[in-house]
Amino acid sequence: MLKEAGTWFKEGLYDYWQQSFLITKTVFQSSGDLQDIAVFETPWFGRVLTLDGVIQLTTGDEFVYHEMLAHVPLYAHGKAESVCIVGGGDGGMLREVLKHPSVKRAVLVEIDAQVVEFCRTHLPMVSNGAFDDPRTEIVIADGIHYMRTTPERFDLIVIDSTDPSGPGEVLFTESFYKDCAQALKPGGIVVNQNGVPFLQGQEIPDTYSRRKPYFTDVGFYVAAVPTYVGGFMALGWASLDASYRRLSRDVIAARYSAAPVATRYYTPDLHGASFCLPAYVQALIPY
Ligand code: SPD
């Protein structure tokens, strides 16, 4: 549906509840082969990217999501050199990952070439040059196929996906998590977005039970992203080393001091606190 200045964009994620944005300018919209893409401007949140009518990011609050999915695992690992981002065609996750000097190589595997092109053109402030960093390799491919067949091994895999419907649904399956575990180096970590538990609570037990057979440590942490409405977003955590989630504040703070990154949400204090789950979220973890 055409999104024109002066009209309201109504997100279609839930059947029974909506958030709306006043559009001040339509920047781009297209019905692609894989999904519908739109970028428009809003008064408070800045530029907004939607895929199939669902908010993927706003330039106002994307820093929360991208910082927390990048810096928590990278500081927990402490010496990650190779990172794979599955999805993330807007480049925001790449931008945050590449802030770490330890990272020597970042492979972005995006199924939809159009998303990368449109975001480079219409949302350059999100990637902020990350696509042109010499450490970056962009692979346009199905993340499922890539993970099943790649000979590479990674210290960190960040699954920067849409919600589990449409092209992104396969990124929430047990077979994909199994392939991710096999594509990790010893001690590697996988993180992903697991929805807003107050409204998408089934994602937590599903993800937990699908990952548990393949990882030493499986859990969740949380971040409050204003436009992923409904309370905290759950971020999924799966690692081959059980010690990472329990590192002390002092260890994380020392790593941060040795290699600080500019952030607006992540801090070493928040790092450990983000693993403290509200009781209603904890209760969704099956065992
Ligand atoms: N409910 C929408 C969740 C979208 C998560 N992915 C965002 C991608 C930003 N790089």
Structural class: alpha/beta
Give the CA-based shape. Answer: globular
Largest sheet: 7 strands, mixed
Small-molecule binders here are: spermidine
Strand-residue proportion: 25-35%
Descriptive notes:
The protein is an alpha/beta fold and 287 residues long. The protein has two domains: 8-58, Spermidine Synthase, Chain: A, domain 2; 62-282, Rossmann fold (3-Layer(aba) Sandwich), CATH 3.40.50. It is 30% helix and 28% strand. The protein is built from eleven helices and 13 strands. The chain has helices at 62-77, 92-97, 113-122, 124-127, 143-149, 174-182, 197-200, 203-211, 249-258, 268-273, 279-282; strands at residues 8-10, 20-22, 25-31, 36-42, 46-51, 54-58, 82-87, 105-110, 136-140, 154-160, 184-193, 217-223, 233-239. The protein has a seven-stranded mixed beta sheet, with helices on both faces. A four-stranded antiparallel beta sheet has the order 3-4-5-6, with helices on one face. The protein has a two-stranded antiparallel ribbon with strand order 1-2. Helix 6 crosses helix 8 (203-211). The protein is globular, with a radius of gyration of 18 Å. The structure holds spermidine (SPD).
